[in-house]
Design a protein that fits this description.
- The complex is a heterotetramer.
- By secondary structure, chain A is of the alpha/beta class.
- In chain A, 32% of the residues lie in helices and 26% in strands.
- In chain A, the strands form 5 sheets. A 6-stranded mixed beta sheet of chain A has the order 6-7-8-3-9-10, with helices on both faces. Chain A has a 6-stranded mixed beta sheet with strand order 16-19-20-13-21-22, with helices on both faces. Chain A has a 4-stranded antiparallel beta sheet with strand order 2-1-4-5, with helices on one face.
- In chain A, helix 15 links the parallel strand 19 and strand 20.
- Chain C is an alpha/beta fold.
- In chain C, strands 2-1-3-4-5-11 form a 6-stranded parallel beta sheet, sandwiched between helices.
- Chain C is globular and about 55 Å long.
- By secondary structure, chain D is mainly alpha-helical.
- In chain D, helix 3 crosses helix 11 and helix 7 runs antiparallel to helix 12.
- The longest helix of chain D is centred in the middle third of the chain and has 29 residues.
- Chains B and D meet through helix 4, helix 10 and helix 12 of B and helix 6, helix 11 and helix 13 of D.
- Bound molecules: adenosine-5'-triphosphate (2 copies) and magnesium ion (2 copies).
- One magnesium ion binds next to helix 6 of chain B.
Chain lengths: 502, 309, 308, 351
């Protein structure tokens, strides 16, 4: 095996902050090399340096032993490096097809050869099992589908060295299996892969070697075959993490929210609800299982007041809801961890502190005179305490939230939503992109909220998560409820079939 | 209204829409790459002066138009450097162009011609009628008996439509305006695209300016642009950032303006300002009726830093 | 008095003009500037000007000139009256001359210069009335200034004296610089049948003349009357110009500054004192017979018998 | 950190100086004395009590239109209609004061209120079109500017015309906004402007509503998910920013200009946009930049008069100053420049 990539002494500074410090990293031809690390450890940063999106403060990059200056992603593309980005690089106003062929230089000619390119992409997607509607606009497809588009995009361009930055965060198990075979196929073609994931099972399954990053520094590189999840977790977060099982409960208390025959955009298979009836009781976690893009987004929007049901009834805390806004739901103590944190959850240009307090500046703890004077000191004390409590890794409370790593952004949302002590918590993919420590933390907190009497609606594309946390499970397919199952000893194979519409 | 008047109004509408169309297309290309350029008035002013001077000296309106366009490019490079390379505020530099370029034009005119009681006159571009087609009753004169510039601009609309909707390059170009970082990761050179956009924008806006002094009126005077840049800006939004939309918007605006002038000449009961409001009010009404949820290229107006999250 | 005279002779007087339009606009600005420089030259004054300024800068600019020791400030338009009054109160030793200023405006250090707009309109109206074959004549104004309105009114009245059935089509461009608009306005008036034009809109007029020339093609059958300078020959369509001799009126003001008798006065400009007169004719467009008729009517105008 | 802060100020200042330097070269090339020119500039802006006062007077309308932009943009509303709203305010104020006439000081208060309301309404119209029909405000506000300007034309040529020129009658003396010092043209309007600047600054950064307004401005989707009524805030931003400009128009016409006339208020709107953006939408900085603009305007008028170069040259120099000033501050954000600057400092420290 020959070496394809070597990064030497890479440092990357943002302001006074080192996101990467003196990192050495190499990839052999035909291997899968995983980068493992907590949220904010600097994995994405290192890869962004590699593809020329960031310029390193120091260090050099060698490709097949030759020193290269990668001063732009265009250069990286030219050198045969491709990347699936953690934060999707998709042009929302364009179709899937257009996104995939963007920047394509392999074919000459002025015009887009629609038919030929379509055929090629469809073949590819079929070969790798990445199902996608090419003519759909990016805005109209689910996050999971967007993830598939990202992967397809990278595959379409056929890179020698492919970086996959948390490619499985929004994929279902079946799709993850598909991705494994993609990776195997690529490996067999002699291509190399840098893989980033927080899911230990995956890491151990696909990797040849694993490099662990912590706080911007390389800790160790090991052979995947010679290690186990425990050791990796230990190296990653610096302490042991015991696997745990959550106790399942059967709640008999009154429902907090109930949907009766709710319709929304009924005709759409992927973006609608069709006669959905369900309820979430106090003190239970209702998990929604299903492949992403079967109406889950619409469901979450209806139970948080972001959109109105077109038909049917929504009953919140015993009152029928007629005309609603998100504010009314928040007033009634409904919390929401939305599916797209950057777009729906956070105000990117505002600071960590401001995002933590987004919903609560009207509380008397943080303001006087009915909101006409903010208590900046109290706000600071509170946000600092949240930083400690939720382990938010940031340079300071005044840092703009968009420059935080994905996992830490999620923690900010979590802190905001859970601290409101909600009666109903709607959590959509709450641990997507979180490292194992943080994931554990989130799950513990959701269980704690349940035990404190909160009704939790958990929507997740991560089947394991749904199984692990839910007291009851509902399966959704094409906007319809396929069935309801107990969380205790769930019939896994039946549920899997239901998820596929059978 | 008789046919003759209608034909005359339409001819005048086409005439008035032409410079607008040049400039609106200029803005279209700029905004499609994410650059909102409100300095169109300035670029036009400079283009109109350069066009006029060259036409005056060489006697060739064609050369004038080309040089006017190049003048526009030159001026717009200031904008491009500041907004693309330095990633500065687009609105501010647009405003700065609006102060800078007309002043420069005025200064040059003063240096060349000094103060005289009459304006210097240059030759105008001749109309070239297209054989056969021009004899079509009614439409013939309207569409096929114009200066080559008019044909050029309509051709440009078609080219623009094809470019943005059918070509690879056009797709890449649009991506830059939508999400430059994504475009960049796909190997598209964002900075280069933005510079190209600025060159096209300067070229077309300069040409629109030069059109005024080489094809429309045969003199240059300060203030000749008379806010056409801002109307063009509005036309791009009205036209929803598409070639055909911009064409419609400009024609509509030309039509309203032409009608406004006729109404003013025909009646003297109402204050003339009320007539002059017609194009603007009609545009507002038209917008209200058609609505427009489309917000245009998503990254427009925003400076692009590659290393920003 | 003997010791004073040589001192006064040594002193070089200075006059400055402010203007909101450009002095190279080939219309109002240029005419006023040329008027001022001609007058200054005839009396050995120094000149300065500030043009193309915003309304908000009128006062500041005049203050700056006052501070720099200028003896007179020439403001060519009634729109400057307010600013002039304001500044004049603070600088009693500086003279202010306002062209087209109102009759009430003058104070101890302000004078108005008032060319007779009625006469200007009338002269144009006479020519138009005699020249028009279609019975429709056109007028394009820049802004709705009182002087413009007066010109339009007299233009109409005088033409109707000549030809009671004549129809006047008029419009305001709302601008003094939008040449293209002048073109469009003229084109639409031609469409209405207008065949003689008069305008009071500076650069806009040159657009109108261009439209006329274009409509004429090779034979001139639609005419234009120029003002305020004699612009005969600039465009083929010009039959004659109604000339306002600004220099002459400004010179009167300069002289009064020199002699210390400036203020509290309106300098009128009219046919009578020669500050308004008819320019040369284009003999090819206008027969000698018609020219004689014009002269006759103008004489009546002076006598006050015109139209009576 | 401290060093970069110093640099953030130093670089723009240096670039302004550079712009002046280039301007002086132009003046030199025209055969005039550049040192003298600078002298005139200073003299014009600061030379005497009157000049200082003039500068302040000139800054007042700019502060209002700047704050108008600042408020709207903070809420994500791209209001380019400051000019129209300013004029609406001025028109309402003068109409009210002329209709009521010589009645006493309370008329000025009514007139100012009328101006504020009119500005607010002129802002509300594009606001309704935006929230109701989703029409881009950049285009509608431009259209409304033209309509306001033309309507003002109607007022001064026809409806409220006085005497021989197209201009309205002047505001009755009793209705004029008082001067702070009897012999200077500075009125209480400037106090209103500055207090307003402080109030907006306080509102945006120290109140809960201001906080939410900014959130809406940055990310309307996230704001609506978090229970903020995006439409309500946007509409408020339209109305309030319009009202600020309208108040400015009223203060200007009642305090400085006294009547409407052709060309009145031209350019204030776009100046406001430019200067608020230069001030990075910070209300207090907006006030400061507006003053700087006024210094530039007043000072360069004197410079033109003193040196006798054409006005266009002065405009060119002014534009250069703006271009360089903004370029200087945006340069500081570029990673390459930052790196260069920090290297520079580190090397110095090493020595
Ligand atoms: N453009 C930027 N500007 C400022 N800081 C940044 C920027 N990009 C990353 N950072 C910071 O660098 C650190 C590393 O971020 P990075 O995204 O590389 O983490 P990560 O290991 O990918 O984490 P995650 O698992 O959450 O994706 C974080 O603290 C982040 O806040
Ligand atoms: N990149 C592309 N490649 C191929 N076909 C495209 C592309 N973009 C658009 N089209 C097709 O071209 C046609 C017109 O596209 P679109 O809807 O963008 O038009 P428009 O923007 O409304 O108008 P205009 O043609 O004036 O830009 C549609 O049929 C669309 O499917
Ligand atoms: Mg990451
Ligand atoms: Mg299109």
């Amino acid at each position: 095996m020959s070496e394809i990539l070597r990064m030497e002494h890479i440092s990357k500074q943002f302001g006074d902050f080192y996101a990467n410090k003196d990192i050495n990293f190499d990839v052999q031809q035909g291997e899968v090399h995983t980068l493992l690390g907590e949220n904010g450890a600097g994995k994405s940063t290192l890869m962004n340096v590699l593809i020329g999106l960031y310029q390193p403060t120091e260090g050099s990059i060698y490709l097949r032993g030759k020193k290269v200056e990668i001063d732009s992603p265009a250069e990286a593309v030219r050198l045969g490096i491709g990347m699936v980005h953690q934060h999707f690089m998709l042009v929302e106003a364009m179709t899937v097809f257009q996104n995939i062929i963007l920047g394509d230089r392999r074919y000459k000619g002025i015009f887009i050869d629609h038919a030929a390119r379509r055929k090629e992409i469809l073949e590819l997607s079929w070969r790798y099992g990445l199902n996608i509607d090419l003519e759909a606009k990016i805005t109209d497809i689910s996050v999971g589908a967007q993830q598939r588009v990202e992967i397809l995009k990278a595959l379409y361009r056929g890179a020698e060295l492919l970086i996959l930055d948390e490619p499985t965060a929004a994929l279902t198990d079946i799709e993850v299996e598909g991705l494994y075979s993609v990776i195997d196929k690529l490996k067999s073609e002699g291509k190399s892969i840098v893989f980033i994931s927080h899911k230990m099972r995956e890491v151990l399954h696909v990797s040849d070697r694993v490099t662990i990053l912590r706080a911007g520094k390389t800790i160790k590189t090991l052979l995947a075959s010679e290690t186990d999840g425990k050791e990796l977790a230990n190296l990653m977060i610096g302490r042991d993490l015991v696997e745990c099982e959550y106790e399942k409960k059967e709640s008999e208390q009154e429902p907090v929210i109930e949907l009766r025959n709710v319709d929304y955009n009924k005709t759409s298979k992927h973006n609608g609800l069709n006669g959905v009836s369900l309820m979430v009781r106090k003190g239970e976690i209702l998990g929604i299982a299903g492949v992403d893009g079967n109406g889950q987004s619409q469901l979450s929007q209806i139970v948080t007041g972001v959109t109105m049901a077109e038909a049917g009834e929504v009953v919140l805390k015993g009152c029928k809801v007629n005309h609603v806004t998100a504010a009314d739901f928040i007033e009634k103590n409904v919390s929401h961890i939305p599916e797209d944190r950057n777009r729906m959850g956070l105000v990117g240009n505002m600071t960590v502190e401001e995002n933590l307090l987004l919903k609560s500046t009207q509380d008397c703890a943080f303001c006087d005179l009915n909101g006409w004077h903010l208590k900046k000191k109290a706000m600071r004390t509170y946000s600092e305490s949240m930083r400690v409590k939720y382990d938010i890794r940031c340079q300071g409370m005044d840092q703009e939230i968009r420059s935080l790593s994905g996992g830490n952004q999620q923690k900010v949302i979590l802190a905001r939503e859970l601290e409101a002590k909600p009666d109903l918590l709607v959590a959509v993919h709450p641990t997507r992109g979180l490292d194992i420590g943080a994931t554990r933390y989130v799950r513990d907190n959701m269980i704690a909220a349940r035990d404190a009497g909160c009704a939790v609606l958990l929507i997740s594309a991560d089947f394991d998560e749904v199984l692990q946390l839910s007291d009851r499970i509902i399966v959704m397919f094409e906007g319809k409820v396929m069935g309801e199952y107990s969380g205790k000893n769930p019939p896994i194979s039946t549920i899997s079939l239901a998820m596929a519409g059978k | 209204m008789d046919w003759n008047t209608i034909a005359e109004v339409l001819t005048s509408a086409v005439r008035m829409a032409t410079p607008l169309l040049f400039v609106a297309l200029a803005e279209l290309y700029s905004e499609r790459a994410g650059l909102v350029n409100i300095g169109l008035d300035g670029i036009m002013a400079f283009g109109s002066l350069v066009g006029f001077l060259v036409c005056f000296w060489t006697g060739s309106p064609f050369l004038g138009v080309i040089c006017g366009a190049l003048g526009g490019v030159l001026v717009n490079m200031v904008y491009a450097f500041c907004t693309v390379t330095l990633a500065g505020q687009q609105i501010v530099y647009g405003m700065a162009l609006n102060i800078f370029a007309p002043a420069l034009a005025s200064f040059i005119y003063r240096v060349v011609f000094g103060v005289s009681s009459t304006l210097a006159q240059a030759t105008l571009m001749k109309t070239v009628s297209i054989p056969v087609l021009k004899d079509i009753p009614f439409l013939g004169k309207l569409l096929f008996d114009q200066t080559p510039m008019v044909y050029a601009v309509y051709l440009l609309v078609v080219v623009t439509m094809i470019y943005f909707n059918r070509t690879k390059s056009g797709l890449n170009y649009k991506a830059v305006g939508e999400y430059p970082k994504a475009a960049e990761t796909m190997g598209i050179n964002v900075i280069r695209t933005k510079y190209i956009a600025s060159i096209i924008c300067g070229f077309l806006a300069g040409m629109g300016g030069a059109y005024l002094t080489t094809c429309y009126v045969n003199t240059y005077s300060d203030g000749i642009v008379a806010g056409r840049g801002f109307i063009a800006l509005a036309a791009v939004i009205f036209g929803r950032w598409s070639g055909s939309g911009v064409l419609m918007a400009c024609l509509l605006f030309g039509l309203f303006d032409a009608m406004q002038l006729r109404l003013q000449v025909g009646t003297d009961l109402l204050p003339y300002q009320l007539f002059q409001m017609i194009p603007y009010v009609m545009t507002l009404i038209a917008l209200t009726i058609f609505g427009s949820k489309i917000a245009g290229p998503k990254s427009k107006g925003k400076p692009y830093y590659r290393e920003e999250r | 008095a003997k010791t004073e005279a040589p001192a006064a002779a040594e002193k070089t007087f200075k006059v400055a003009m402010i203007c909101d339009s450009s002095i190279s606009d080939g219309g109002w600005g240029a005419a006023c500037y040329n008027g001022m420089t001609a007058a200054a030259e005839s009396r050995g004054w120094e000149t300065a000007y500030t043009d193309a300024i915003d309304q908000s800068a009128y006062a500041d600019t005049m203050i700056s000139y006052c501070d720099l020791g200028y003896d007179m400030i020439f403001a060519p338009g009634n729109q400057y009256s307010d600013a002039v009054k304001q500044v004049a109160a603070d600088y009693p030793n500086v003279a202010f001359a306002v062209l087209n200023g109102s009759i009430e405006l003058p104070t101890a250090n302000i004078m108005s210069i008032l060319p007779n707009a009625q006469q200007i309109g009338s002269i144009a109206g006479i020519i138009a009335g005699l020249m028009s074959k279609s019975g429709v004549i056109g007028f394009i104004g820049g802004m709705e200034l009182d002087t413009t309105k007066a010109k339009l009114a007299q233009f109409t009245a005088a033409a109707q004296v000549i030809n009671p059935d004549i129809k006047v089509v008029s419009a305001y461009a709302g601008s003094f610089s939008d040449t293209a608009k002048g073109m469009e306005l003229a084109a639409s008036m031609i469409n209405e049948g207008a065949d003689v034009f008069f305008g009071d809109a500076s650069a806009v007029d040159s657009g109108a003349r261009q439209a006329i020339d274009q409509a004429n093609g090779d034979t001139v059958k639609i005419y234009d009357i120029g003002q305020p300078a004699d612009i005969l020959g600039q465009n083929p369509c010009i039959v004659s110009s109604v000339v306002t001799d600004n220099a002459r009126m400004i010179a009167i003001c300069l002289e009064k500054v020199e002699t210390g008798s400036f203020g509290n006065e309106v300098v009128f400009g009219s046919l009578e004192n020669g500050a308004v007169f008819l320019g040369k004719f284009n003999d090819e467009l206008m027969s000698a017979d018609l020219q004689a008729q014009v002269a006759e009517y103008i004489k009546q105008l002076q006598d006050g018998t015109f139209g009576k | 950190m401290q060093k970069t802060k110093t640099l953030n100020v130093l670089i723009p200042v240096l670039s302004i100086l550079l712009a002046f330097f280039i301007g002086m070269l132009i003046i030199l090339a025209l055969g005039k004395n550049p040192i003298e020119a600078i002298g005139y500039l200073m003299k014009g802006a600061f030379g005497s009590k009157t000049n200082l006062a003039n500068t302040v007077v000139r800054s007042m309308p700019l502060i209002f239109t700047g704050l108008c932009t600042c408020f709207a943009y903070r809420c994500g509303v791209f209001n380019l209609g400051g000019e129209g709203q300013f004029l609406a305010g001025a028109m309402a104020a003068i109409t009210v004061s002329l209709l009521i006439g010589h009645e006493g000081w309370w008329v000025s208060i009514v007139a100012v209120l009328a101006g504020t309301v009119a500005g607010g309404i002129w802002g509300l119209l594009p606001g309704i079109l935006k929230t109701w029909r989703g029409i881009n405000e950049m285009i509608t506000t431009i259209m409304f500017n033209y309509v306001a300007t033309l309507f003002m034309g109607y007022l001064y040529t026809t409806a409220l015309r006085e005497g021989s020129v197209p201009q309205t009658a002047p505001v009755p003396d009793a209705t004029k906004i008082g001067r702070i010092f009897p012999d200077l043209r500075i009125t209480w309007g400037i106090v209103i402007a500055i207090v307003l600047g402080i109030a907006i600054w306080y509102f945006l950064f120290y109140t809960s509503k201001g906080f939410q307004l900014r959130a809406v401005g940055f990310n309307p989707v996230a704001s609506s998910y978090n229970g903020l009524s995006v439409k309500k805030y946007m509409l408020t931003a339209f109305i309030v920013s319009g009202a600020i400009a309208g108040l400015g128009g009223a203060a200007d016409v009642l305090g400085t200009q006294f009547r409407l006339i052709s060309g009145y208020g031209g350019g204030y709107g776009f100046d406001g946009v430019a200067l608020a953006l230069i001030a990075q939408l910070h209300p207090l900085a907006t006030v400061a930049v507006a003053y700087f603009f006024a210094v530039l305007r007043v000072g360069s008028t004197t410079m033109q008069v003193g040196t006798g170069v054409p006005t266009s040259v002065i405009d060119i120099i002014q534009a250069l100053v703006i271009i360089f000033a903004v370029a200087g501050s945006s340069m500081m954000y570029l990673p390459k420049v930052r790196k260069f600057v920090t290297n520079l400092f580190e090397r110095k420290e090493a020595k």
